Amino acid sequence: MKKILFIDRDGTIIREPEDEQIDAFEKLQFVPRAISSLAFLRQHTDYRFVMVSNQDGLGTPAFPEDTFWPVQNFILETLRGEGVTFDDILIDPHFPADNAPTRKPQTGLVEKYMNDPEYDIAGSYVIGDRDSDRQFAKNIGCGFLQITPDDPTSWERATAIAYGGERTAEVRRTTKETDISVSLDLDGNGHCNIDTGLGFFDHMLEQIGKHGGIDLDIHVRGDLHVDEHHTIEDTALALGECILKALGDKRGIERYGYCLPMDDCLCSVALDFGGRPWLVWNAEFHREHIGEMPTEMFLHFFKSLSDAAKMNLNIRAEGQNEHHKIEGIFKALARSLKMAVRRDVYHYELPSTKGTL
Fold first, then answer.
1. Could you point out which of 13, 170, 211, 341 has its C-alpha 20 to 30 Å from the C-alpha of 332?
2. pTM of the full structure
């Protein structure tokens, strides 16, 4: 079955001006990395390329066609010169107030693909910059890849997902002591929904998601009437297993990550997704608890996380403020994870001389 990339134009391939009309060449600017990313995907994948664009009032006095087509044709010629061609180009000229069934996020323009069993719609993507593009993808029933014109890494992320697949995972761990569900997206935006029953622990886990750019959903029901041990340790095991699962075959990842200051503290977390779990822990805490979290459980958490994710962790922390110290460690872990899981689709191979990780 054939897969499709439904690609928005304005704000995705080219920058969108304030008046939302690219009706003159002086308004034309390509979004950074858009051309090289599309060229890579065109060369290395079998996706069908379909441009889908709303052009408000095209053909009316407000937006004459003779101001649109010269720029549009120049865009297409520029892309063609880099090996990027489109299998179909779909343009809707209606204003929003028209409520036309062909205007995104409505699906009128693409229903011929949605109704054709030759196409794998669930395995296809919309690439766009607006919430309406996200809703368009939802209405079609396919994935969505967000482009932020001022963030050149957004095309890099979109390309990595379209080429190498999504890196999401879910883990459910149930014992007599805990019932834990974890889901994550390594290529997310740091959105977190966390409830472990321990407020400070929730706050620390949120650092992993927020500063690691990982969408993280963790829900825990543990035997807190006994103590906090099982909740913290089992959460680490489930989270580590989920990270390992999301990494898949690890092709193209940076593999290594490494330190940040937080006020009076200097914290470093060096990690390696080499498949050999190991923890080096050089951090001392002199308080018995921070929030509801026993400080003796910090080492337990990172040891369990290291074991389940099959990663080498080397953790060091210096400073006086105990809260800052452990928060700095979690933030440093997050930044190390973000560094280590980053994919380079242009060098899509295992980062190992052994040929396995």
1. 170
2. 0.87
Nearest of 212, 214, 234 to residue 223 by alpha carbon: 234
Over residues 270-293, mean pLDDT: 94
User: Are 329 and 233 within 8 A, CB to CB?
Assistant: no
> Is 129 part of the annotated catalytic residue set?
no
Of 10, 23, 187, 234, the active-site residue reads: 10
DSSP state for residue 16 in the 8-state scheme: P
* CB-based contacts of 14, cutoff 8 Å, min separation 6: 22, 28, 29, 30, 31, 34, 75
From first CA to last CA, the distance across the chain in angstroms is 32
pLDDT per position as a tens digit, 303-324: 999 999 999 999 999 999 999 9
* Angle, CA of 99, 101 and 105, to the nearest 5°: 85
* Predicted local distance difference test score (pLDDT) of residue 152: 82
- Under a CB-based contact definition with an 8 Å cutoff, are residues 35 and 78 in contact? yes
Nearest CA-CA partner of 301 in 319, 318, 315? 315
Alpha-helical runs (H) found in the chain = 34-44, 65-81, 111-114, 131-140, 153-164, 199-212, 229-247, 296-309, 322-341
Active site residue 98: no
Displacement of CA 231 from its chain's centroid (Å): 27
For residue 133, the one-letter residue type is D
Catalytic residue among 8, 23, 133, 215: 8
